[in-house]
Amino acid sequence: MSVTTLGRIAAPARASRRAGQRARRRARLTEAVAMMFGVLLIVWTVLPIYNMVMVSLEAHSDVFTDAIWPPHPSVASFWIVVTEGYWYLEYFWHQFGNSLYVGAAVTFLTLLIASLASFSIGRMRIRYGWLVSNAALLTYVIPASFLAIPFYRIMQNYGLANNLWSVIAAEVTFATPYGIFIFSQYGRSIPIELDESARMDGATPMQIYFHIYLPMLAPALVAVGTYALLLAWNEYLYQFLLLSSKRSMTVPVALAQFLNSDEAPWNYMMATAIVYALPPLAIYYLFRGRMTAGLTMGGVKG
Amino acid sequence: MSSTSVLEFAPSAIRQRITTWRHLRGGLKGSEYAWAIAFLVPYVGVFLAFVVYPAVYGLWMGSEASLYSELFSDPIYQSTVVNTVLFLGIAVNLKMFCALLLSGFFMRRGWWVKALLMIYVLPWAVPALPTFISIHWMLNGEWGLINNAIYQIFHIDGPAWLDSRWFALGSAIYSHIWKWMPFWTVILLAGRMAIPQDLYDAAKVDGATGWRQFVHINLPLIANLYLICTLLSTIFSLGDFNSVFFVTGGGPANSTHVLATLGIRDAFDLAQPRLGVAAVMSALPLVIPLVIILMRKLKTAEVQL
Prior knowledge:
The complex is a heterodimer. By secondary structure, chain A is mostly helical. Chain A folds into 2 domains: 2-56; 80-297, Orthogonal Bundle (MetI-like fold). Chain A is 75% helix and 0% strand. Chain A has 14 helices and no strands. Chain A has helices spanning 2-56, 60-63, 76-82, 92-123, 129-141, 148-157, 164-187, 192-200, 205-216, 218-234, 237-242, 251-257, 266-286, 288-297. The longest helix of chain A is centred in the first third of the chain and has 55 residues, at 2-56. The relative contact order of chain A is 0.12. By secondary structure, chain B is mainly alpha-helical. Chain B has 2 domains: 1-61, no CATH class; 73-304, MetI-like fold. Helices cover 79% and strands 0% of the residues of chain B. Chain B has helices at 2-9, 12-25, 30-61, 65-72, 75-105, 111-120, 122-125, 128-138, 145-154, 165-193, 197-205, 210-238, 242-247, 259-269, 273-281, 284-304. At the A-B interface, α1, α4, α5, α6 and α7 of A face α2, α3, α6, α7 and α8 of B.
């Protein structure tokens, strides 16, 4: 009995084993092709970043040669940046502080204003709240650069020209709508019964906001906070237009200043660029999961 | 409960006033209503002071008809419009289509695919300015990395990338795609991941794999997301100042400006802010329909995403 069954099965089994081998070979082949594609993708991705690192490690005389890797790599340029040893960099750490100040203020104000507004709209269900969320959505889809010229004029009228607070105002304006969007959506997953029972117990809206809403909102606060911080740190146009003196500049504006001179010291410039890019890079990879979740939850913006 | 019984005894005029009042407050009690208003005030203030005021101010600045005849007769403006259309048409579609394909690639299993994704998102994670400046130098005709590499490998001189209009515009488009493709890939990847695994399993049982699985499962489910992303990317790209400003600087001879950079150049380099506003405003026929479509789509998309 068992022998005959085995015999009858044996032939198809051999065939299927051969088919299995073929399938495995094909899988290995596609995997190899995919890996090759992956290598190409790495080259595409890393090329400008490699160029940045390469130039920053070169001496000034080596920048203007046909080398494709640094002939005598050294971190001298970074030392120049850190010690403010070049006249474009004389206020580097002060400017770095300005960028940090702007980033911190924008993050705090964005979280505060957006969470308050979303609490009023989503939790307290204020009538005509949808008008405010539409206003936020409108701000979110309008390109910020389109408002730059009148914004500059208005900051002059407000007497905030060359003042960090004009930049903070601009960044908060463009970061808050995203916050309202995300908080409103995330807020839907927090049971409204929590608020209602607190209200029954006589809690004021302020207490509900601080003791229930904000703690429950924590993951969304991290996502939006990271977004606002990176926006404020990375944004260029408004900072360039609104800040003109060396002591009020932020790092990106100072960095772009290098381009004004004909014989730009590219190695110092790239070293500055790397020092400027490292904090957001670290924050990005630290909060990557949260940020991605926030982005897919609420549509999009870079 | 008690409030209805009070209402029954109240004269109809008062009842009317109370219900309108309650209608306005959306069922909030007096002090709660004050709180709700107070919570909204900061954002409404920001919106009025920094969005409505500049927007109205801009409309006023660009309201003179003579500005537009001056603008439209400017050959730099004319080439800028062509550049903007090309930039949007090529950069947005190429970027989104590649992002769609790559999001499929990143659905593959395996540790190296995850590691690759970490590297692949670098352009998005690094601030725009440093990398665009780097690209600017990388494409330098004499000492840039690209032409150095071409020389080392083929022993020929590469083209001066930023010295001719079409190469320069192509470089700006390349930079834009390089910077933003990872972002949209991550969004589309998340959209694909949200498709329940059962659907794939069921399709596999029915014998649909590869291309057919893509056409019959992925595409219908991801089409709406893809459309929204493309529209959103169109409007963001229209406002993209950095990739043109830092890679080509609008050059050579102002031949590669897009509307976003031309507006700033007219306003600040030529000190003609009204002309700059007019240049930006001339994009409104494209911006307004996009904004309307997007606001509708985004409101329904919240639920679907």
